[in-house]
Write a structure and sequence with these properties.
Blueprint (H helix, E strand, L loop, with lengths): L18 H28 L4 E6 L14 E7 H20 L3 H9 L4 H21 L5 H23 L11 H27 L8 H26 L7 H28 L2
């Protein structure tokens, strides 16, 4: 048995989600969904057509041959890209507050929220790709790898809930550990890009300070999600209650997306 699979001595309590708590959670999702939607609309109205070119370079001979010149594969208009992850979050929260509320509530009582992981797999991946592109990491092949690692991280988060139902008497930590491993690699790639830019930049040039601000703030917020899940499955303090964790996820999602959206808007898109 590995350390990651070692049983926890804590027995998880059955999730308490009565009709009153479910109704409050429904209202919270409705409000947060509308806040995401409002931000997306405002941003689309005020944004410019600023775009970032995604690039590729290809080998022109046998292994070891220098690659050819960098080519633009396509351009991404940043305003709609930012609005996209806000709209995806809005869609998720409004659906679980509306037509899918029954499924959402039943899933929470089983200690899982698959709607969250589906939305994160797309919206959080878009966010990481946007951050990467702002640092100058625009090679399509690198971005594909970053997207894959981030989606894997989200998938392991879902598996952590699936393999650890409320009635368990021990906790399997393998999905959590693998999720943390997968999740760190996009940030290592982005950090390497920033360090390289800083080392090679001419005096007075290089990546502007606001990009470092985005990198640090979103890194902290992204890994706050991992902290919430750790507290949930360790049963620490108020997080013994799974629904407390659900509220924490709702708040973190709103803050992370809003922080990234308005930092990008203020420094890149404000025309």
């Amino acid at each position: 048995m590995t350390t990651a699979d070692a049983p926890s001595l804590r027995v998880t309590q059955v999730i308490d989600l009565d009709d009153d708590r479910a109704a409050r959670l429904r209202r919270a999702n409705l409000v947060i969904g509308l806040l995401h939607l409002a931000q997306a609309v405002v941003l689309l109205v005020l944004t410019t057509s600023f775009a970032i070119a995604l690039t590729a370079s290809y080998a022109e001979g046998p292994p070891g041959t220098a690659v050819g010149s960098v080519r633009t594969v396509f351009e991404v208009v940043i305003g709609p890209a930012v609005a996209a992850f806000l709209l995806l979050a809005a869609l998720d929260h409004l659906l679980v507050a509306g037509p899918f509320n029954g499924r959402y509530t039943r899933a929470l009582r089983r200690g899982s929220n698959p709607f969250r992981w589906i939305e994160y797999s797309v919206s959080a991946t878009l966010m990481v790709l946007l951050i990467a592109s702002l640092t100058g990491l625009t090679t399509v092949t690198a971005l594909i790898g970053i997207a894959g690692a981030n989606i894997a991280m989200i998938g392991f988060g879902h598996l952590m809930e699936k393999y650890n139902p409320p009635e368990r008497t021990s906790t399997t930590w393998t999905p959590y550990v693998l999720g943390c491993v997968a999740g760190i690699f996009p940030w290592l790639a982005i950090g390497f890009q920033l360090a390289g830019s800083e080392a090679t930049a001419s005096e007075g040039q290089g990546v502007p300070p606001f990009v470092y601000g985005i990198f640090v703030s979103l890194f902290v917020l992204f890994f706050s999600f991992a902290v919430v899940q750790l507290l949930q499955f360790r049963g620490k303090g108020r997080f013994k209650d799974y629904i407390t964790g659900e509220y924490a996820y709702l708040l973190l999602s709103l803050v992370a997306k809003s922080v990234l959206a308005w930092q990008v808007f203020a420094n890149v898109l404000l025309g």
